[in-house]
Amino acid sequence: MPDTRSVILVLVAVAFVTTLPSIALADLRVCNKTENRIGIALGYKDDKGWATEGWWNISSNACETLLRGPLVSRYYYIYAVDYDAGGEWTGSAYMCSQDKMFTIRGINECADRGYDRTGFLEIDTGDEREWTVQLVEPGQAGKGGE
Question: What domains can you pick out in the chain, each with its CATH number?
Answer without folding.
Answer: 26-135 (2.60.40)
